[in-house]
Each structure stands twice: as C-alpha cells, then as structure tokens.
C-alpha cells in the first residue's frame, strides 16, 4: 500500500481530528513510498528503531512518537540519532496517541478493560471523547483480589492503595499517565480507579475519598492498543506486522 493511502487508512480508523492532543498524530517521519512490512510498539525508542531495522520494516507504528508540546525543538542528541536512523533506512514513523487510547475497540482503554473483565459503560468525563472511561467488573472483587488479577494478566505487580472493606463493583480507568482522573472518579462515587502511574497526591486522594487505586505501569497498560491495531492491519489488509515489546518498568 502506498504511504499516502496507509496514512489515510489510519486516520479514517482513529479519527485524530476529533480530539485535541499533545503531539501530531499520523505520519511523523516520512520514509519509503510503499509499505508492506510494519513493526508496532509502544514507544519509538532507539531500541524499537533498531529492531525495526533488523526486521527490514517499511514503517514503524507506535503509541508514543515524537514532537510533543513543550519539548525542546532542536533535533540534537538522542532525537537526532533516532531521526537519523529512520531517515538512513527510509523507514516511515506513524504515531497515534490519544486517538489510540479512546478507540472503542482497539483502544488502550478498551483492550485493557477486556483483559481485566471490565465492562465499559461510558466516558468518565462529560465529553464525547473522554480519555478516561468507567464501567463495572463482570465479577465483583476485593481490592486485593483485583490486584492479584492485574498481576497475573499484565505480568507485573501493581502499586495499590486499598482502602475499601467491600468488594469493587464500579471502576474507572485510564491507561498510561492518567492518575489525575482519580478525583473525578471519586466525585462520581466509583469504587476503584485503575491507571498506569501514580503521583504523590494520588494516594492521599484514594485514602481521603475512599476509592481503591491501582497503578499498573504506563508501559504495561498501553501495550495492547497498538498490538490490536497491528493485528487488525495484518488480518484486514494483509500487512506483514510484528509487535515488538521493549520492556519498560515504568
């Protein structure tokens, strides 16, 4: 498929124009015109670029790309080495941030909810494109039971603040660095909140508002959207897609 057509396919699927983001979504670094082989991953790190080169990839498709608002603009140091490696091998870089988080089927939230047996019911925010979602556990669990489930499914032990004595029924979630939404979840009387990261104040919010909290890792909670997107592209459009998980403890 031609690069322009591939970019349009992704934009039609993920609709980046419908949400304000912190980075450009879509094609970020232009490479060869024809795309057949794709490497997917969470972040366009040097390790992922090197793996894509080894796989003779025509394109890299990630959740965390480049050119974030507020970052240093000069292409020097680490950024220069990454971009230079892409240009030297004529590899396209495509990145989708919030559009991939909120997609109702292949999104990070949707995929994580499916893995953890959470039924998503609505957005947590009163907007059409809420980044955080809310729903219910298919089977109510105590906080410690849910923490064990997270550990088994994601292969990492979550950081927790367990304050409730009853079982969790309602739960809100936002993959990645969504810890700030805990207060909105508490305002709505939700039993528990799940995200990737925690801040110092997050634990106080949990304790003082009687809402169980789980931080299961930014990387660990956001592996599944980009993986699902790659699987869709392979199945529906015949691309040769390889998901490469570059381990990250955060």
TrEMBL record:
A divalent metal cation 1 binds at residues 63, 101, 218, 222. InterPro entries: DUF34/NIF3 (IPR002678), DUF34/NIF3_sf (IPR036069). It comes from the Bacteria. GO terms for molecular function: metal ion binding. The keyword Metal-binding applies. A divalent metal cation 2 binds at residue 64. Keywords: Metal-binding. Belongs to the GTP cyclohydrolase I type 2/NIF3 family. This is GTP cyclohydrolase 1 type 2 homolog.
């Amino acid at each position: 498929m031609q690069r322009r057509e591939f970019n349009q396919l992704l934009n039609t699927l993920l609709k980046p124009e419908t949400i304000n983001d912190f980075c450009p979504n879509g094609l970020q670094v232009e490479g060869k015109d024809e795309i057949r082989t794709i490497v997917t991953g969470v972040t366009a790190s040097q390790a992922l670029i090197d793996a894509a080169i080894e796989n003779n990839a025509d394109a890299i498709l990630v959740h965390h790309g480049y050119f974030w608002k507020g970052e240093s603009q000069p292409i020097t140091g680490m950024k220069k080495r990454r971009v230079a490696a892409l240009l030297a091998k004529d590899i396209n870089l495509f990145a989708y941030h919030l559009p991939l988080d909120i997609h109702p089927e292949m999104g990070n939230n949707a995929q994580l909810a499916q893995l953890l047996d959470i039924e998503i019911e609505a957005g947590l925010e009163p907007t059409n494109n809420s980044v955080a979602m809310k729903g219910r556990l298919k089977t109510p669990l105590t906080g410690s039971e849910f923490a064990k489930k997270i550990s088994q499914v994601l292969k990492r032990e979550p950081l927790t603040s367990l304050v409730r004595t009853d079982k969790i029924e309602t739960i809100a979630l936002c993959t990645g660095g969504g810890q700030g939404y805990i207060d909105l979840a508490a305002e709505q009387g939700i039993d528990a909140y799940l995200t990737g990261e925690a801040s110092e104040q997050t634990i106080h919010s949990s304790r003082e508002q009687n809402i169980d909290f789980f931080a299961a890792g930014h990387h660990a909670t956001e592996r599944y959207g980009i993986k699902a997107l790659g699987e869709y592209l392979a199945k529906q459009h015949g691309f040769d897609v390889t998901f490469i998980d570059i381990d990250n403890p955060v």
